[in-house]
Specification:
Chain lengths: 228, 543, 115
């Protein structure tokens, strides 16, 4: 069996590290394709209901706070930058920057999840905006819905898509944070800096993908119907 | 008998089955060949469970008023039968058993690209299957395998949640398998194994992997929506709250129709191998057959609305879906024509695998043509949800896909075990299956045409004769399935030693020993000729 | 990956920084535009900006720009398939009442003379 340049790191089914890296990267892209269709089922349903009930979706969107959505977006973009830099550091074999960038990415991701759950979702809950759990918009929220002339059950439909889509997105973030923790531990032990940066690259692809999903969720959920 | 060989071959000293022993060496294996065995055992188990449900249904239908079970139980029986057979038997059958075993060897690789992921797929399959079995044991589900809303989300009181969870989990098993195969076929081929030298089995497994990758995620998310709607009742599919139940059907059939091609494409690939090997000829129009697999994979995603002609779907959408459904029949027909053309002028030998292949070709043709009846909107208004539909898809899935699976299992059995199965018994059971199958499902075409609806425990007395015929056929079919189960287990120990190439067939898998060593080849093979290069080597096999 | 050296393709950090800046600018833009009344075009603009941002991420952060055709096909296929799902589903929904066909359960429609 022909040996690659770094024999210990090449799994036995591969001829060399190039083939191994190629296969892993291709596999990861295919995985992302499945993720596109996984989220895609949600986006398709969302598109159907939004086209049926434009007023209710606009009203529902006005129940969310743009400031949250915008700051998440910025946080994720920052984390994508640090992630890209982490991969680059691994490629160049620089251990300290690698760990630093990974930790930054992790912090940004964790902050995203914590803010979303602790403040945004909890706030929605207090305002009775969570369909199936407690949905009875009051005060200002009710006024907004009236202004758009939207039936309550259709607004609930928007809210459920908001919770499911951001919820599944957040779940992906949690997985990502877990993966980053693992990367940091391994990097601390000296992995990834001698030609075996592949794992970091794979996690990076995943992380950027989750960022992209948010890039669509932000305008589709937080910015409907004009804010003028 | 054509399988007789001149010298008595011996088993190789070390091979993948005897390198190590003990349950750990199986449950933690990453060898694709051993994982194939794990799947073989698991799906056979599920086949038996699904078969028991079917037997009870057929027994019940012997009498018009239903002779055996309560209507409510009958509903659970057909639901469990459908879900198990589709998700836990047939969809994994050819890919995970024959695909897992053969793909790496056939393309000249040491293993799949991601062996650990391969094992993970099996564990996910078992987890999904376990959750599903829990749903069955703790009360069952009665929505039909299609989970139509709002029935499944609002009205029934059965275990929709755990059943959907089981499907969700096993969906990821399929996704990972598809991913693994696609990467393996792209990146792991032996030197010289170009795309157009690949055996056609690989092409159709590749097409099936594409469908796994692109369709399974949608059913996974759809199951999530079903579960959420059932727990929280927020109206996602409830018309009373503004939801659209037909949206569910769109999501389900966007996955559902490609799924039925997941069931048939791998078997089509097996048939190409069998027809070539037992006709001693290169498959006629190789590249047409190869591309027809890919064409099927693509077009099958554009026809799903033909399941929804009478659902309230727009008739304009119906028109488009109907036209596209006719288009998907073309690549399927290409395959049938090319297989028959391959046999023409070939030196055909009628070993058991070939008998299965011949059965496949005939029955698949009937199933496919009746699909065209159903794809015509006007005819479907009459035939929808009748036994005609049942007969249509069983001709394809049982007459076609299961036959292909059994044919392939017989064909590669000597490679998997190093031993031959008893040929006479095998031919006999292939024949029994063919007869039993036609007796079971032939009458159902007529029943459906006469208007007998599917999914009922009772029926008007005038349909009894045909139903009894069908139940009688089912018992013959059952005998046909039990015989191979027995002789295959028997052959594990007592079967004659097969030797590396009992069929005198072409292909890398026949160049390594039977059973192969752990990494398949003693040295990486180099491919220098096209697939099925039978040329003038006919005398080697003809007895 | 075309670059078969041991380190893979190393992208200059300048590229990453520029991508980052573009993404931030586009985020500000999409938020700002939401406060201007463009009618239907609000949605169009929002989607165009989102697609541009996603493209930036895919091409530079994810390095698709440096990949050969195969990887691109994977992503394009997934998007194409998603568009099958969305387009055909919406096409059904919005053409359901084009034909003035009476539904069986609509007695009134059945008794009306056909148009
Ligand atoms: C030649 C191509 C095919 C065409 C044009 C076709 C057409 C159809 C149509 C129109 C229906 C809906 C009938 C109704 O519900 O009223 C149907 C049902 C079905 N077909 Fe096919 N079909 C084809 C191939 C296949 C294949 C290859 C399989 C499986 C391996 C298959 C499996 C099924 C199943 C399982 C159903 C019933 C689904 C259900 O309602 O439970 N079909 N087919
Ligand atoms: Cu179909």
């Amino acid at each position: 069996m022909p040996e690659g340049p770094a024999p210990a790191l090449v799994a036995e089914q591969f001829d060399d590290i190039i083939q191994q890296r190629d296969a892993a990267s291709f596999g990861m892209w295919i995985f992302l394709a499945t993720e596109i269709l996984f989220f895609g089922g949600l986006f398709a349903s969302y598109a159907l209901y939004r086209s049926l009930y434009p007023a209710a979706f606009a009203a529902g969107s006005h129940l969310l706070k743009v400031a949250y959505g915008a700051s998440y977006t910025v946080m994720l973009i920052c984390s994508s930058l640090t992630m890209a830099m982490a991969v680059r550091s691994a490629q160049l074999g620089r251990r300290k920057p690698l760990i630093g960038f990974l930790v930054l990415t992790l912090l940004l991701g964790a902050a995203f999840v914590i803010i979303k759950l602790r403040w945004e979702w909890y706030g929605d809950y207090l305002e009775h905006l969570v369909p199936g759990v407690s949905f009875a918009p009051q005060g200002e929220a009710l006024e907004v819905i009236r202004r758009f002339g939207a039936p309550l059950s259709h607004v609930a439909l928007f809210m459920i898509f908001y919770f499911v889509m951001t919820g599944i997105h957040a779940l992906h973030m949690v997985v990502g944070v877990g993966l980053l923790t693992f990367l940091i531990i391994m990097a601390y032990r000296g992995r990834f800096v001698s030609g075996d940066f592949n794992t970091v690259e794979m996690v990076g692809l995943y992380w950027h993908f989750v960022d992209i999903v948010w890039i669509f969720l932000f305008p589709l959920l937080y910015l409907i119907g004009g804010r003028y | 008998m054509s399988t007789a060989t001149v010298e008595v071959p011996a088993l190789p000293e070390v091979h993948y089955l005897n390198v190590n022993y003990g349950w750990r060496s199986w449950l933690f294996t990453t060898d694709h060949k051993r994982i194939a065995w794990l799947y073989l055992v698991s799906i056979t188990f599920f086949f038996v469970v699904g078969g028991v449900a079917a037997t009870l249904m057929r027994l019940n239908l012997i009498e018009p008023q239903g002779s055996l079970v309560e209507p409510a139980t009958y509903n659970k029986l057909f639901t469990v039968h459908g879900l198990i057979m589709i998700f836990f038997f047939l969809a994994p059958a050819v890919p995970t058993v024959l695909g897992n075993f053969a793909i790496p060897i056939v393309i000249g690789a040491r293993d799949v690209a991601f062996p650990k992921l391969n094992l993970l797929s099996w564990y996910l399959f078992i987890a999904g299957g376990g959750v599903f079995l829990y749903a069955v044991i703790s009360g069952g589900v009665d929505t039909g395998w299609t989970f139509y809303t709002p029935l499944s989300t609002t009205y029934v009181n059965t275990n929709v949640l755990s059943a959907a969870m089981g499907i969700f989990i096993s969906g990821f098993s399929s996704i990972l398998t598809g991913l693994n195969f696609a990467v393996t076929i792209h990146k792991m081929r032996a030197p010289g194994m170009t795309w157009f030298r690949l055996p056609l089995f690989i092409w159709s497994m590749y097409a099936a992997s594409l469908i796994f990758i692109l369709a399974m995620p949608v059913i996974a998310i759809t199951m999530v929506l079903i579960m959420l709607e059932r727990i929280f009742h927020v109206g996602i599919f409830d018309p009373a709250l503004g939801g659209d139940p037909i949206l569910f059907q769109h999501l389900f059939w966007f996955f559902g129709h490609p799924e039925v091609y997941i069931l048939i494409l791998p078997s089509m690939g097996v048939i190409s191998e069998l027809v070539a090997a037992f006709s001693r000829r290169r498959v006629f129009g190789y590249s047409f057959v190869a591309f027809s697999s890919v064409a099927i994979a693509v077009i099958s995603f554009l026809v799903w609305g033909h399941h929804m002609f009478v659902s309230g779907q727009s008739i304009y959408a119906g028109l488009v879906f109907s036209a596209l459904s006719f288009a998907v029949a073309i690549p399927s027909a290409v395959k049938v024509f090319n297989w028959t053309a391959t046999m023409y002028q070939g030196s055909v030998s009628y070993d058991a695998p070939m008998l299965y292949a011949l059965g496949f070709i005939g029955l698949f043709t009937i199933g496919g043509l009746t699909g065209l009846f159903l794809a015509s909107m006007a005819a479907d208004i009459h035939l929808h949800d009748t036994y005609f539909v049942i007969a249509h898809f069983h001709y394809i899935m049982v007459g076609g896909a299961v036959m292909g699976y059994l044919g392939g299992l017989h064909y590669w059995w000597p490679k998997m075990t190093g031993r031959l199965y008893p040929e006479t018994w095998a031919r006999l059971s292939a024949l029994i299956i063919f007869v039993g199958f036609n007796l079971t499902f032939g009458p159902q075409f007529i029943l459906g045409y006469l208007g007998m609806p599917r999914r009922y425990a009772v029926y008007p007395p005038e349909f009894q004769a045909l139903n009894v015929l069908s139940s009688a056929g089912a018992s013959i079919l059952a005998v046909g399935y039990v015989i191979p189960l027995i002789y295959m287990i028997w052959s594990l120990r007592y079967g004659p030693i097969a030797g590396p190439n009992p069929w005198g067939a072409k292909g890398l898998e026949w160049e390594t020993s039977s059973p192969p060593p752990t990494h398949n080849f003693h040295e990486t093979p180099i491919v220098t000729e096209e697939a099925y290069a039978y040329g003038a080597r006919q005398e080697a096999h003809v007895a | 990956m075309p670059d078969h050296s041991l380190t893979g393709h190393v992208v200059p950090s300048r590229v990453y920084i520029l991508t980052f800046v573009a993404l931030i600018v586009l985020t500000v833009l999409t938020t700002g535009v939401a406060y201007i009344d463009l009618g239907y075009f609000n949605t169009v603009v929002a989607l165009v900006i989102a697609v541009s941002k996603a493209t930036c991420v895919v091409l530079f952060f994810m390095g698709l720009k440096y990949h050969k055709g195969l990887t691109r096909i994977v992503i394009i296929a997934a998007l194409l398939w998603l568009s099958f799902l969305i387009v055909l589903t919406l096409a059904d929904m919005h053409s359901r009442d084009w034909a003035p066909l009476p539904q069986p359960w609509q007695k009134a429609a059945l008794s009306e003379p056909h148009r």
